[in-house]
Write a structure and sequence with these properties.
With 285 residues, the protein is α/β, with parallel strands linked by helices. Strands 2-3-1-4-5-6 form a 6-stranded mixed beta sheet, with helices on both faces. Strands 7-8-9 form a 3-stranded mixed beta sheet. It has helices at residues 11-19, 63-76, 93-101, 124-134, 151-161, 179-194, 228-235, 240-257, 277-283; strands spanning 2-4, 37-42, 47-52, 82-87, 108-113, 139-142, 204-213, 216-225, 261-269. The radius of gyration is 19 Å and the shape is globular. It starts with a strand and ends with a helix. The structure holds guanosine-5'-diphosphate and magnesium ion. Magnesium ion (MG) binds at residues 11-12, 32-33.
Length: 285
Amino acid sequence: MAIVGRPNVGKSTLVNAIVGARISITSKKPQTTRFRLLGIATSDEAQIILVDTPGFQTVHRSRLNERMNRAVRDGLAGVDTIVVVMEAGKVDAGDREVIALLPMGTPAIAALNKVDRLRDKARLLPNMAQIASLHDFAAIVPISAEKGSGLDALLVEITRLLPEGDPLYAQDDLTDRDERFLAAEFIREKIFRAFGDEIPYATMVAIDSFGTERGLRRIHASVYVDKASQRAILLGEGGARMKAIGSAARQDMEQLFGGKVFLEIWVRVKSGWADDERMLNRIGY
Ligand code: GDP
Ligand code: MG
């Protein structure tokens, strides 16, 4: 099942809410999600496999963004169900673009997220009617991925559309991505949350080494930036900002991995990385 929608509507928050763990990073900034990632939620009756995708990018043109858009299209192909996430109370041009991409013949559910923010609940009914007129959705469900409301109703609709079959993943698998990937993403999330627009989009995180000895994970990571000035901002006075970012990322890792983590982060300048094919390949974009 694929989760799609324009940037920032809460796709990754929804994946985490359904999986019940923070596996996909989220922030207030659009284009936080750069990679396709599976979330896996297994109950007694069903296994839901969710494909989280980057939002469809229209603003910046770079090789990185071309790859992200490809990930959206690939995410839509070959899934049995699609959940389109929109913000409750409005339909904007980006939502229409996403709806237009929906393949014929694949059942789709509209999840109207962030209902907690909608002050005038009376707007919900006309909003749902408008959405129903745009596409033949199997269901339209108002939810709050952050507060957890409406999720049971959404899960009922999703489960109804799942094909019969044996589970593809083990009962306790939460994602198809490994700890190395998740570690890099947690670091990137903290950077996206801590800085204004100029820094996050100029950064990329690579894991240089990842080892485990007696339950302790030792992780060495590099954060690449475009310019020396960005490096200075990231580090902060005496390296204080980077230290705070490392510490917050480490706590997330310890919670998800269930063990102690030693984390060391270097900030390196590598100009033009977002258009450097070799660099993008190395990171797995
Ligand atoms: P994505 O780009 O679609 O993956 O969006 P994210 O999951 O990264 O979420 C974007 C922002 O919306 C984050 O700041 C989330 O905390 C916020 N958000 C997500 N779901 C909800 C919700 O149900 N209610 C509110 N108020 N905010 C939400
Ligand atoms: Mg996302």
